[in-house]
Amino acid sequence: MKKETFDQTITFHGSITIPIEMKESINLLLKRGVYKELHRRKMLSDGQLDMLLSSNDVLGGSTDGE
């Protein structure tokens, strides 16, 4: 974890607590899923999907190549 976010958490619904970096990872995964679903529904071209996934990787997203 980054030094400045260590031990910082976010609480949801009064009982669920997650570290800030985990929240950021979840947000990146959700974005990738939305991009892939839009592509599957033919709302994004191959080039647009590649561009979005590449920009997501630059921002710290997964590089699993899916």
Keywords, please?
single chain, 66 residues, alpha+beta, two-stranded antiparallel sheet, 2 helices, elongated
Strand content: 5-15%
Shape: elongated
The count of helical stretches stands at 2
Low-confidence stretches: 61-66
How far is the N terminus from the C terminus? Answer: 25 Å
Q: How is the quaternary structure best described? A: single chain
Category from helices, strands and their pairing: alpha+beta
Which sheet architecture does the biggest sheet show?
2 strands, antiparallel
Q: Averaged pLDDT, please? A: 81
**How many beta-strand elements?**
2
Write the layout of secondary structure elements.
Layout: E1 9-12, E2 16-19, H1 20-40, H2 46-58
Antiparallel strand pairs: 1-2
Can you give a write-up of this model?
It is a single chain. This protein is an alpha+beta fold and 66 residues long. It is built from two helices and two strands; from the N terminus they run ββαα. The chain has helices at 20-40, 46-58; strands spanning 9-12, 16-19. It has a two-stranded antiparallel ribbon. Strand 1 (9-12) and strand 2 (16-19) form a beta hairpin. The chain is elongated. Mean pLDDT is 81; it is low at 61-66.
